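Re: the multi-chain job from yesterday

Posting the exact lines I submitted so nobody has to dig through the queue logs.
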Amino acid sequence: QSVVTQPPSASGTPGQRVTISCSGSSSNIGNNYVYWYQKVPGTAPKLLIAKNDQRPSGVPDRFSGSKSATSASLAISGLRSEDEADYYCGTWDDRLSGFVFGTGTQVNVL
Amino acid sequence: QVQLVESGGGLVKPGGSLRLSCAASGFIFNDYYLTWIRQPPGKGLEWVSFISRTGSHMNYADSVKGRFTISRDNAKNSLDLQMNNLRPDDTAVYYCARGGPSNWEGPDFWGQGILVTVSS
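And the result, C-alpha coordinates for all chains:
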Protein backbone atom coordinates (compact mmCIF):
# COMPACT_ATOMS: atom_id res chain seq x y z
CA GLN A 1 0.00 0.00 0.00
CA SER A 2 1.04 3.61 -0.57
CA VAL A 3 3.11 5.54 1.97
CA VAL A 4 1.03 8.62 1.19
CA THR A 5 -2.61 8.57 2.23
CA GLN A 6 -5.73 10.41 1.11
CA PRO A 7 -9.38 10.11 2.16
CA PRO A 8 -11.19 7.67 -0.15
CA SER A 9 -13.94 10.13 -1.04
CA ALA A 10 -15.14 13.71 -0.83
CA SER A 11 -18.32 15.33 -2.03
CA GLY A 12 -20.09 18.64 -2.40
CA THR A 13 -22.87 20.39 -4.22
CA PRO A 14 -22.29 22.66 -7.22
CA GLY A 15 -20.67 25.91 -6.16
CA GLN A 16 -19.29 24.54 -2.88
CA ARG A 17 -15.67 24.28 -1.86
CA VAL A 18 -14.12 20.83 -1.40
CA THR A 19 -10.74 20.13 0.18
CA ILE A 20 -8.72 16.94 -0.22
CA SER A 21 -5.88 16.10 2.15
CA CYS A 22 -2.67 14.20 1.44
CA SER A 23 -0.63 12.88 4.37
CA GLY A 24 2.92 11.60 4.21
CA SER A 25 6.18 11.71 6.13
CA SER A 26 9.52 13.47 6.33
CA SER A 27 10.99 11.28 3.59
CA ASN A 28 8.39 12.32 1.03
CA ILE A 29 6.07 15.30 1.47
CA GLY A 30 8.16 16.78 4.27
CA ASN A 31 11.21 17.15 2.04
CA ASN A 32 9.84 17.37 -1.53
CA TYR A 33 7.33 19.11 -3.73
CA VAL A 34 3.76 17.84 -4.01
CA TYR A 35 1.91 17.41 -7.29
CA TRP A 36 -1.83 16.92 -7.84
CA TYR A 37 -3.49 14.99 -10.69
CA GLN A 38 -7.06 14.64 -11.89
CA LYS A 39 -7.99 11.23 -13.30
CA VAL A 40 -11.24 10.71 -15.19
CA PRO A 41 -11.95 7.03 -15.99
CA GLY A 42 -10.76 6.13 -19.46
CA THR A 43 -8.55 9.18 -19.86
CA ALA A 44 -4.95 10.06 -19.04
CA PRO A 45 -4.19 11.75 -15.73
CA LYS A 46 -3.95 15.52 -15.94
CA LEU A 47 -1.56 17.64 -13.90
CA LEU A 48 -3.51 20.18 -11.83
CA ILE A 49 -0.92 21.50 -9.39
CA ALA A 50 2.88 21.36 -9.61
CA LYS A 51 5.46 22.08 -6.91
CA ASN A 52 2.91 22.45 -4.07
CA ASP A 53 0.91 25.39 -5.39
CA GLN A 54 1.70 26.16 -9.04
CA ARG A 55 -1.10 25.85 -11.61
CA PRO A 56 0.02 24.86 -15.12
CA SER A 57 -1.30 26.91 -17.98
CA GLY A 58 -4.94 26.12 -18.72
CA VAL A 59 -5.86 24.87 -15.25
CA PRO A 60 -8.73 26.95 -13.79
CA ASP A 61 -7.94 29.04 -10.73
CA ARG A 62 -10.72 27.17 -8.93
CA PHE A 63 -8.00 24.61 -8.17
CA SER A 64 -5.41 25.52 -5.56
CA GLY A 65 -2.75 23.61 -3.64
CA SER A 66 -0.92 24.08 -0.37
CA LYS A 67 1.59 22.22 1.77
CA SER A 68 2.53 22.31 5.45
CA ALA A 69 5.14 20.03 7.01
CA THR A 70 4.26 16.44 5.99
CA SER A 71 0.78 17.17 4.63
CA ALA A 72 -0.68 18.84 1.59
CA SER A 73 -4.13 19.87 0.41
CA LEU A 74 -5.98 20.43 -2.82
CA ALA A 75 -8.95 22.79 -2.76
CA ILE A 76 -11.62 22.96 -5.43
CA SER A 77 -13.77 26.04 -5.14
CA GLY A 78 -16.95 26.70 -7.09
CA LEU A 79 -17.43 22.95 -7.57
CA ARG A 80 -18.76 21.95 -10.99
CA SER A 81 -20.20 18.71 -12.32
CA GLU A 82 -17.17 18.22 -14.58
CA ASP A 83 -14.96 18.10 -11.47
CA GLU A 84 -16.25 14.60 -10.72
CA ALA A 85 -13.10 12.50 -10.96
CA ASP A 86 -10.41 10.79 -8.93
CA TYR A 87 -7.68 13.03 -7.54
CA TYR A 88 -4.17 11.87 -6.65
CA CYS A 89 -1.34 13.62 -4.90
CA GLY A 90 2.20 12.60 -5.76
CA THR A 91 5.67 13.33 -4.49
CA TRP A 92 9.23 12.06 -4.51
CA ASP A 93 10.22 9.72 -1.70
CA ASP A 94 13.86 9.97 -0.64
CA ARG A 95 13.84 6.58 1.10
CA LEU A 96 12.36 4.71 -1.89
CA SER A 97 14.24 6.82 -4.47
CA GLY A 98 11.05 6.88 -6.49
CA PHE A 99 7.87 8.83 -7.04
CA VAL A 100 4.91 7.87 -4.88
CA PHE A 101 1.23 8.55 -5.42
CA GLY A 102 -1.36 8.99 -2.74
CA THR A 103 -4.15 6.47 -2.38
CA GLY A 104 -6.53 8.65 -4.37
CA THR A 105 -9.76 10.49 -3.55
CA GLN A 106 -12.99 10.16 -5.51
CA VAL A 107 -14.82 13.48 -5.71
CA ASN A 108 -18.57 13.33 -6.20
CA VAL A 109 -20.70 16.32 -7.13
CA LEU A 110 -24.11 15.84 -5.54
CA GLN B 1 2.28 20.21 -28.48
CA VAL B 2 3.63 17.43 -26.27
CA GLN B 3 2.55 13.98 -27.39
CA LEU B 4 3.30 10.59 -25.89
CA VAL B 5 1.91 7.49 -27.60
CA GLU B 6 2.25 4.04 -26.06
CA SER B 7 2.23 0.78 -28.00
CA GLY B 8 2.94 -2.91 -27.48
CA GLY B 9 0.31 -3.86 -24.92
CA GLY B 10 -1.93 -6.89 -25.04
CA LEU B 11 -2.70 -10.26 -23.49
CA VAL B 12 0.16 -12.41 -22.22
CA LYS B 13 0.32 -15.59 -20.13
CA PRO B 14 1.86 -15.60 -16.64
CA GLY B 15 5.62 -15.93 -16.92
CA GLY B 16 5.61 -14.37 -20.37
CA SER B 17 7.23 -11.20 -21.67
CA LEU B 18 6.05 -8.01 -23.32
CA ARG B 19 7.81 -4.86 -24.51
CA LEU B 20 6.05 -1.52 -24.28
CA SER B 21 7.17 1.45 -26.34
CA CYS B 22 6.39 5.13 -26.11
CA ALA B 23 6.90 7.55 -29.02
CA ALA B 24 7.42 11.14 -27.98
CA SER B 25 7.11 14.40 -29.89
CA GLY B 26 6.61 18.11 -29.32
CA PHE B 27 9.47 18.69 -26.88
CA ILE B 28 13.24 18.35 -26.58
CA PHE B 29 13.32 14.68 -25.61
CA ASN B 30 16.71 14.51 -23.93
CA ASP B 31 15.94 17.47 -21.64
CA TYR B 32 13.58 15.36 -19.55
CA TYR B 33 13.43 12.36 -17.25
CA LEU B 34 10.80 9.86 -18.34
CA THR B 35 8.65 7.53 -16.27
CA TRP B 36 6.31 4.59 -16.53
CA ILE B 37 3.25 4.57 -14.28
CA ARG B 38 0.49 1.98 -14.12
CA GLN B 39 -3.06 1.68 -12.86
CA PRO B 40 -4.44 -1.79 -12.15
CA PRO B 41 -8.17 -2.19 -12.76
CA GLY B 42 -10.15 -0.56 -9.96
CA LYS B 43 -7.00 0.58 -8.14
CA GLY B 44 -4.87 3.68 -7.82
CA LEU B 45 -1.84 4.98 -9.68
CA GLU B 46 1.47 3.21 -9.10
CA TRP B 47 4.86 4.54 -10.16
CA VAL B 48 6.83 1.82 -11.97
CA SER B 49 10.17 3.22 -13.12
CA PHE B 50 12.09 6.31 -14.18
CA ILE B 51 15.08 6.89 -16.44
CA SER B 52 17.43 9.87 -16.52
CA ARG B 53 17.94 12.20 -19.45
CA THR B 54 21.00 10.33 -20.74
CA GLY B 55 19.70 6.90 -19.82
CA SER B 56 22.52 6.30 -17.38
CA HIS B 57 20.41 6.29 -14.24
CA MET B 58 17.18 4.46 -13.57
CA ASN B 59 15.20 3.00 -10.72
CA TYR B 60 12.24 0.71 -10.24
CA ALA B 61 9.41 0.07 -7.82
CA ASP B 62 10.13 -2.93 -5.61
CA SER B 63 7.18 -4.74 -7.19
CA VAL B 64 8.90 -4.88 -10.60
CA LYS B 65 12.60 -4.75 -9.70
CA GLY B 66 14.55 -7.54 -11.40
CA ARG B 67 11.74 -8.22 -13.90
CA PHE B 68 11.27 -4.91 -15.75
CA THR B 69 13.91 -2.89 -17.64
CA ILE B 70 13.46 0.69 -18.75
CA SER B 71 15.45 2.16 -21.63
CA ARG B 72 15.38 5.14 -23.96
CA ASP B 73 16.72 6.07 -27.40
CA ASN B 74 17.33 9.80 -27.55
CA ALA B 75 18.03 9.63 -31.28
CA LYS B 76 14.58 8.19 -31.92
CA ASN B 77 12.67 10.04 -29.16
CA SER B 78 11.46 6.75 -27.78
CA LEU B 79 11.06 5.10 -24.40
CA ASP B 80 10.71 1.36 -23.79
CA LEU B 81 9.75 -0.92 -20.95
CA GLN B 82 10.79 -4.56 -21.22
CA MET B 83 8.61 -6.65 -18.94
CA ASN B 84 9.67 -10.23 -18.16
CA ASN B 85 8.28 -12.94 -15.92
CA LEU B 86 4.91 -11.22 -15.91
CA ARG B 87 2.43 -11.96 -13.16
CA PRO B 88 -1.36 -11.52 -12.99
CA ASP B 89 -0.90 -8.56 -10.63
CA ASP B 90 1.00 -6.74 -13.39
CA THR B 91 -2.32 -6.40 -15.21
CA ALA B 92 -2.87 -2.67 -15.58
CA VAL B 93 -3.09 0.29 -17.91
CA TYR B 94 0.50 1.47 -18.39
CA TYR B 95 1.23 5.15 -18.98
CA CYS B 96 4.43 6.74 -20.15
CA ALA B 97 4.90 10.21 -18.79
CA ARG B 98 7.31 13.11 -19.06
CA GLY B 99 9.12 14.08 -15.89
CA GLY B 100 11.27 17.12 -15.43
CA PRO B 101 14.95 17.99 -15.69
CA SER B 102 15.46 16.22 -12.36
CA ASN B 103 14.34 12.85 -11.00
CA TRP B 104 12.27 14.31 -8.17
CA GLU B 105 9.94 16.27 -10.43
CA GLY B 106 6.47 14.90 -10.94
CA PRO B 107 5.22 13.98 -14.42
CA ASP B 108 3.51 16.79 -16.30
CA PHE B 109 2.33 15.13 -19.53
CA TRP B 110 1.03 11.59 -19.89
CA GLY B 111 0.25 9.29 -22.79
CA GLN B 112 -3.24 7.85 -23.21
CA GLY B 113 -2.14 4.55 -21.73
CA ILE B 114 -2.04 0.98 -22.96
CA LEU B 115 -3.60 -2.10 -21.42
CA VAL B 116 -1.50 -5.07 -20.38
CA THR B 117 -3.42 -8.16 -19.32
CA VAL B 118 -1.60 -11.10 -17.73
CA SER B 119 -3.86 -14.14 -17.66
CA SER B 120 -3.83 -17.80 -18.61
